[in-house]
């Protein structure tokens, strides 16, 4: 940060030019707007501005430039009465906004120049931004990538979600253990959001229902709720890249309703009523930090219904601006359910149609089923959402009735179709029978949607053959695959400026809108001069990560070594502990003097564990414990280093993916639906060591089998191994090195002499090993040896690295969104032009969008 005096000298005067302060893009104009924002929005004067003030003023300066596009976009969509995609997601893992918005506005250079003129380093401003961590991992990050691509492809779209006051926890490491700290992303203000205090919808909970006959003599149901509260909208503009479209992310914040607890008030229980009010506001307090296993918490169901109800009411409001009733709702909107978290929307839209708009059942069902499409994200049985009927009926009595009615009609159809197969009918029911009856949300989503998709080719096949098999047999045409993607703007252009420069020099600037242009790299894969530039790029990224690691952990790593990186949520199925078994084997070989892989390696880990997931937390402790022993041992630490980067989030991710030589994608086959980290690594020129799981399969086909280190059991082999009665201890007994490695973990060597610390992990491996680490261990270690050998041939490795980046354009989220538009949503681009009416005062007031 420059000193106060330096800034004082350079503080520009304003009012000296007629260039429009609020929209100009030149360095001069940005500079003046920045100083204005500091004064008029941040209410600070130049000499006392803190780094945070600089960030806020920069953000407001950029936001002004977004709003003109945003308003023009709203106007264009409204006039055209455009079909709109509504993406319903409980999570958006957005990452920092400022850098991305500068890129999408095309003003990075202007901003850097303007900042430099003022004696400020743009990077320092960027570093100030706290990250909106409104998601757990892959699923939330996917939603954020899709918003970026929807805007870039000029698709009319709204992202709907929850404005959590506290996003995913901050991870601290204390003595090698994960400690969770509260995320405070809103504490210092969020310049990107625009509160809409007048855009509020009531959301009700509890109570009971009453049948009645309306004035037309028709049977109707009235819901008499116990509690009501309001959802208030906070809007964040989402810029497209290389166009003028700017879409809307609308997140809902809970506030207490006026009659927050009638009963308590009527009983004269003022404090009880105030408590209820506080309770209402708790709904959007905090994101549930579980990545996958189902949580089954009452507050979570409340969150889901809360944001879905607000979103659907908002869609109905927009629809009724153009139409007299809800007829045609499904033609105006395509609503995508990002996993089952928003699947209560099926019952809520039915309720709105039936109870609030007087529609008959058949018509309401027709509209509902033609509005929604559902994305399945997991096959893990413990992650499939179900809710106890008792809880559901207590919170949402009317919705439970509606679900029962949907189910009754559906089961009647099934019995006609499969008269001699009552088991199939029971399997497909929306209600799971048993001691505790439960609502199956994946079945509700499937029955209530016109399309169901998986997120990678292999995953979509498994959806059809396992969890939704019966549904696929009933409605084969409903099932699709759309392989996930990631945005090349954030994960190449923003994260890896040197790579961006290389590609732009060869392919021109268009590649960032058409990632297939990355193929122009391919013919240069063997060119020595090009390879040198490529190696310098990779080297610079590794140096940046090394500096970050030193800052965060104090550990020193060598950018010349092979950077072998595994960053993702910590989970047994992702098998960070398989990676550890290999590391301990390398350590053991060096100590024994039997090492045959002289490639120096730096192993980098990062990722959060769900706070209640003991094994995952123990894996984090084991990473630190192995790191401590290896990094301290002079006999070993010239060859191996192990580091854990705390608090893996989007901001850290942007520094990590570009720095990888080797990407660890080693989940048990059949367990990772797609993965998106695998794509980010590959695009940045990392080679993958991986199993045939999720999108790894397609990445390997795309980059060429010879440019991918494959190992491990296939899905079919995993199934067969388990069916034949898997006995992990036999692998332990028969494989000498594996036995020695596990014995080392049990010896206390890594736990200051305590042989019991890692017992839960080693016992689990030896006794059950549900994720087949021991079965895959020999093949993994062998593949690692191939990778180590390959790295010692820099030209060969660089060639493979270039080919990985050149051939992964398919994994751009733009391609994925194009497929959704064409195959599922049936929606067309609606480009926005800023040319007409720029900044003019409108003749007459238009309806607010
Ligand atoms: C991409 C990403 C993920 C998903 O990683 P996987 O390796 O696909 O599990 C999780 N967290 C963050 C911060 C990411 O950027």
UniProtKB/TrEMBL annotation:
Keywords, comma-separated and alphabetical: Carbohydrate metabolism, Glycogen metabolism, Glycosyltransferase, Phosphoprotein, Pyridoxal phosphate, Transferase
Listed Pfam families: Phosphorylase (PF00343)
Cofactor(s) listed in the protein's UniProt record: pyridoxal 5'-phosphate
EC identifiers of the protein: 2.4.1.1
Top-level division of the source organism's lineage: Bacteria
Reaction(s) catalysed (UniProt annotation): [(1->4)-alpha-D-glucosyl](n) + phosphate = [(1->4)-alpha-D-glucosyl](n-1) + alpha-D-glucose 1-phosphate
Presence of keyword tRNA-binding: no
Annotated region described as Disordered, given as residue ranges: 1-27
Single biological process term from Gene Ontology: glycogen catabolic process
Molecular function via GO: glycogen phosphorylase activity; pyridoxal phosphate binding
Broad EC category: transferase
Modified residues (N6-(pyridoxal phosphate)lysine): 680
SUPFAM superfamilies, sorted: UDP-Glycosyltransferase/glycogen phosphorylase
Comp. bias intervals (Basic and acidic residues): 1-22
UniProt cross-references to InterPro entries, sorted A to Z: Glycg_phsphrylas, Glyco_trans_35, Pyridoxal_P_attach_site
Assigned GO CC terms: cytoplasm
Family of the protein in this entry: Belongs to the glycogen phosphorylase family.
Function: Phosphorylase is an important allosteric enzyme in carbohydrate metabolism. Enzymes from different sources differ in their regulatory mechanisms and in their natural substrates. However, all known phosphorylases share catalytic and structural properties.
Name by which UniProt lists this protein: Alpha-1,4 glucan phosphorylase
Organism, scientific name: Thioalkalivibrio paradoxus ARh 1
Lineage, highest ranks first: Bacteria, Pseudomonadati, Pseudomonadota, Gammaproteobacteria, Chromatiales
